[in-house]
Amino acid sequence: MASEIALDQAPDEAAVEAFGNRMTSALNEAGMLLMISLGHRSGLLSALNGAGWLTSDALATSTGLDERYVRELLHGLTAARVVETDVSAGTYHLPAAHGALLTDGGDANMAVYAQFIPLLGSVEDDVLECFRRGGGVPYKRFGRFHEVMAEDSGQTVLPALRDHILPLVPGLTGRLTAGLDVLDVGCGRGRALMLMAEQFPDSRFVGYDLSAEAVAWARERAEARGLHNLRFEVRDLSDFDSSAEPGAFDLVTTFDAVHDQARPLNVLRGIRKSLADDGVYLAQDIRGTSHPHLDADLPLGPVLYAVSIMHCMTVSLAQGGEGLGTMWGRERAREYMMRAGFRDIRIHELDHDEQNDYYVVRP
């Protein structure tokens, strides 16, 4: 009997080989992402884009970087088939198709997202300790998170805000032009608010965020741009259900901000409380199904679960919170919104954004 059980549990050799090949490919792709992150942050990819064929010396000179590091990165990106090389001339070239996806020269710079791999990897020891003792990793351990999220927002939210996101609410653009009171919850560096404050000078805007660093950055930029209809506050929204000012806002927005709150239901109840009678809540949040076996079919399912473990879930738990996680999904989001007192919940997808859903929510 024991030998029969052991035989039944023996792995299929073809399946082992297939998964081994997948792991090898994943390791290579992970290495490529680390190098792309370096290329993005150093400016090397931008310097290569549209520049023709360059030597490592010429590229180092034009960027002010150390030639030996530039050369090694070029070698690595060549091995990863991101960069092409002319061996006889000792020159390197970024193909136009790659430049369109790895620099600001195209519709979306995917090198921005490559930064999440080293950023989240930097807290692996902290997260591993949480596996052993519970708790979470606080926001302060994620030194560049708001910076990278601001770059992300600059691609998914800002270009689509006026023409695609705000029009999901019929008549909203006209009302903003006339003048509304607007709150953005979990505003981060406030780039969406700054854009709206510029475009709708007769409306009044407020941003709340837990991060003092992000709020300080936002205040400085808003002041430099002369946005007197905009203010930011450092605010812990764990008690927003009780601390929110009733009926104070005509529009409340959240951009990828609810699921990592310590107490997301309290935040949603506070949003409901703070809305005027004819107010509307407009939310962007991660597209998920609330079912992990179905999330496997999403284009970015696995990487978003990694973001959940390494950031969104753990920062919530660090505050003694619920730890809802990035992939709470449509079903749970709808459930939480209904528990918060909302009844009219409509979910939209936008062609430019396969990562997020857009919720138009009314009392």
TrEMBL record:
A Pfam family of this chain: WHD_Rv2258c
Location of the Methyltransferase domain: 177-294
EC primary class: transferase
Source organism: Spectribacter hydrogenoxidans
Domain of life, source organism: Bacteria
InterPro entries referenced in this protein's UniProt entry, alphabetically: Methyltranfer_dom, SAM-binding_MTase, SAM-dependent_MTases_sf, WH-like_DNA-bd_sf, WH_DNA-bd_sf, WHD_Rv2258c
Keyword field contains Transferase: yes
Record's protein name: Class I SAM-dependent methyltransferase
One example of a Gene Ontology biological process annotation: methylation
Molecular-function annotations in GO: methyltransferase activity
Keyword annotations: Methyltransferase, Transferase
All residue ranges annotated as the S-adenosylmethionine-dependent methyltransferase Rv2258c-like winged HTH domain in the record: 31-103
PANTHER family given in the database record: METHYLTRANSFERASE TYPE 11, S-ADENOSYLMETHIONINE-DEPENDENT METHYLTRANSFERASE RV2258C
Annotated EC: 2.1.1.-
